[in-house]
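B., you asked whether I could sanity-check this one before it goes into the benchmark set. Here's the sequence:
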Amino acid sequence: MLVIKNLIEVKKLNKIIFYDEETNDEVLFEIIDSTIFNGNKYLLVADKDEQATILKETIDKNDNLIYSLIENEEEFQQISLILMESDEYDIEFG
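And here's what the prediction gave me:
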């Protein structure tokens, strides 16, 4: 789990609704940051409780944008380290 700490004037311009197909739950996330790594786009998002996660952007066969949780632990750690370099917020692993 990631927790956003000391959010310093990050412009939250975009929101995204994450739909979990397994539980049928919807969670509203605010996009905090994004990065591109190895040709893939990743979003750092936070929910209303400032619990954060990283979503990976992909495109399905119908050209729809799909955002999914990163299942590969090594990939998650690499992207986390990149996002931790920002001076606009602090990330804590919980």
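One thing to flag: Residues 21 and 68 are 11 Å apart (CA to CA). Otherwise nothing jumped out at me.
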